[in-house]
Amino acid sequence: MPAYRIGQPSPLGASITPAGVNFSVVAPLATRVELLLFADGGATEPEQVIELDGRHRSGDHWHVEVEGVGLGCCYGYRVFGPLQSGSHGFNPSKVLLDPCARAIGGWDGYERGSAVGAIPNTACCLKGVVTERDRFDFATAPRPRHRWQHSVIYELHVGGFTQGPHCPVPEDRQGTMLGLITVLPQLRDLGITAIELLPVMAFDPQDAPAGRYNHWGYSPISWMAPHPGYLVDTDPLAARREVRQLVEACHREGLEVILDVVYNHTSEGNQNGPTLSWRGFADSLYYHQNARGDYLDVSGCGNSIAANRPLVRHLILESLRCWAVELGIDGFRFDLGIALSRGEELAPLDMPPLFEAMEADPDLADLKLISEPWDCGGLYRLADFPARRVAGWNGRFRDDLRRFWKGDDKTVWPLSQRLAGNPDLFGGQAAPLGRTITFLTAHDGFTLADLVSYDRKHNLANGENDRDGDNHNNSWNHGAEGPSSDPAVNALRNRQIRNLLASLLLAPGVPMLLMGDEVRRSQGGNNNTWCQNNPLGWMHWQPDDDDLALRRFLQRLLALRRQLAPLLNPELPFGDGQLRRAGDGGPPWHQWHGVELGQPDWASWSHCLAWSLQDPMQGALLWCGLNAYYQPMTFSLPHCATGWHQVINTALPEDADLPDQPQPFHGAQASLESRSLVLLVAQPLLG
Question: What is the C-alpha separation between 512 and 296, in angstroms, rounded?
């Protein structure tokens, strides 16, 4: 049997030493800890049990160095201690997964239900696996490091994007990270600069209604280990290698990799849920609880992580460094990130210690950091998100653009604020570059095709009697619920998709696109496909001619955005309604218009708006008109000294809308068809 010594409290988890492996975990209130060594991930009983007593304790850390073991060693813990008043944590009948394990074994025999109650789960538990902790080879595959001004994010699900009928990924790699490598050139050619992956940290697929599968992965079972369902090789030691292979391939294509990370809650649920890892080591440390020991929940998933506490904060930072430094990840998007700013009794903190530590960490200094600025407890902080370097998902942008193009009243003024960089949300000034992520759709909600095809959600497939998913989608079916054979309905839907995409990509901010929106992917009206590992949640790999035309439209639109990027800078001001003359001096500025120059109509019944970009010496450089009215409208145009060229007209079919050679536009007025957008550009800008 392997010999063992006292060991060291640092680093956390299992780390290779010259003699063997050092194991270290946090368990502040424990009185005794057992380290269990297993022959392999499928073993139902441990080969050796090493009891740790007070000699193996340094403060809140329990540690031991075991000689003669190494990479691939499988292990778990049992933790003993007195039950505190209202505590639910210590349950020595359960074998616990190390919160810092970088790989996991035992998935084939895992049973979530066995982690509930007092019956031992040894025969069907998950085990940590000892791995290397090498740094990512940035010399060979450096970070692309795209500036925020030139960034376009594409949100996708690894499993859902790499399978389905006619998927080009080889069959043996479908549903995996290595399979994603096959289709990276398509994403690069589309014109995006970063992929944002739904959770790829190990999650519990069994945390779903009976007969269903947790598809999205917002049920973390580990913050360090890659999810085994996304791997080709079943050897746990291959997991980190496959992540690195994907990141290296992305970097070669010039694509950054951003991970959607879930630190606000875990798969353990409320106090009646399974004891898998965190709860068994330090129930009252990791989770916010009231005086009775009931879990406080602002995640909607039964528990809320107490990220304000030093030991919890340290573990989250260790996770971030694991993925960024060891595996090469370029950024993180924090699910319900504002929940991580809550302190004791869930009080919002203006200087949350986790984000302070994150921003001060040199290993994380060159990463893109993004957060949802809301949680399920009602906290919403976009402009005043308490972290200087964290960009926020702009839900107001999504809602206001949807409502405008849907034709709602009282939408022109809100639209102007979104197109001006959200000054109404940021204290009268446009949001600085990198502070707001603009989007129309995301994994949580309708796809773009469904947004213009359904008035209401259709979530019966989820098994919750249509109770799940958002009821307030600001969607419009344009005359028929769901698929239609009416050419007029389909033509209007396609035009509205072009309107929405053009509005998104001409607005300041960092745009994000949803997987498959470029080919009109539909989820059949389901706006919450979290448990749909089937065609509802998969990529659309059978595009018809109209789908491909939309993809070409978006491709050219993204190229136009790159070309015009300096002119879409949110720091360029918007005028006060008074026309200026060329030669007045000063920086370029934006000017609002209605159907008449310099006379925007802010009335509640208005459905039209136009803006131009004026150069102090050259005069008008850009003009954009937006007509969400059900009838055509004629707009007066500012004078363009070098001549206007039409580069977008969404009333035209996709292929004619963004021609390879923009067409000269003559006249002092522009007639916009109903529900259409037109962009005119001065000749010199077209190079």
Answer: 32
Per-residue pLDDT, averaged over 391-399, amounts to: 97
| Span 642-668, pLDDT tens digits | 999 999 999 998 666 566 677 899 999
678: Cα separation from own chain's centroid? 31
Residues 602, 503 share a domain: no
CA angle 333, 527, 408 (to 5 degrees): 95
Beta bridge partners of 374: 380
| Residues contacting residue 559 through CB under 8 Å, at least 6 positions apart | 191
The span from the CA of 357 to the CA of 362, in Å, is 10
Same domain, 252 and 372: yes
Query: Is 635 found in the same domain as 672?
Result: yes
Whether residue 600 sits in one domain with residue 532: no
Average pLDDT over residues 104-117: 95
In a shared domain, residues 543 and 653: no
Pairwise CA distance, residues 311 & 472, whole Å: 39
Kindly name the residue from 196, 372, 654, 657 that is annotated as catalytic. 372
What distance, in Å, lies between the first and last C-alpha atoms of the chain? 74
Q: How far apart are CA 135 and CA 153, in angstroms?
A: 26
Number of domains observed in the structure of the chain? 3
pLDDT tens digits for range 398-409 = 999 999 999 999
- What is the C-alpha to C-alpha distance for residues 629 and 605, in angstroms, rounded to an integer? 10
- Examine the residue annotation and report whether 372 is marked as an active-site residue of this protein: yes
Long-range contacts of 593-601 (CB under 8 A, 24+ apart): 593/635, 593/636, 593/638, 594/635, 595/633, 595/634, 595/635, 595/636, 596/636, 597/636, 597/637, 597/638, 600/412, 600/416, 601/412
Residue 123: what residue type? A
Q: Choosing from 260, 283, 330, 335, which is the catalytic residue?
A: 335
> What are the pLDDT digits (tens) for 499-527?
999 999 999 999 999 999 999 999 999 99
- Report the pLDDT value the prediction gives residue 653, as an integer from 0 to 100: 82
Question: Which percentage of the chain shows pLDDT scores above 90?
Answer: 88
- Pull the structure tokens for residue 182: 């096959």
What integer pLDDT is reported at residue 519 of this predicted model?
98
- Claim to verify: residue 411 and residue 548 sit in the same structural domain: yes
Q: How far are the Cα atoms of 236, 287, 314, 343, 456 from residue 386, in angstroms, in the given order?
A: 38, 21, 19, 13, 35
Query: Which CATH number goes with the domain that contains 617?
Result: 2.60.40.1180
| 57 and 175 assigned to the same domain | no
* pLDDT over 70 (residue 87): no
Is residue 577 pLDDT above 50, yes or no? no
For residues 211 and 517, which has the higher predicted lDDT (pLDDT)? 517
Alpha helices (runs of H) in 570-681, residue ranges in sequence order:
654-657
Taking the whole predicted model, whether its pTM rises above 0.90 is answered as: yes
Buried b (16+ CB within 10 A) or exposed e, 639-670: ebeeebbbbbbbbbebeebbeeebeebeeeeb
**Residue 35 or 209, more confident:** 35
The more confidently predicted of residues 225 and 615 is: 225
Active site residue 518: no
Query: Domain containing 23: what range?
Result: 4-129
Return the percentage of the chain with pLDDT > 70, whole number. 96
Residue 672 inside a domain? The answer is: yes
Together in a domain, 104 and 244: no
Pairwise CA distance, residues 385 & 469, whole Å: 26
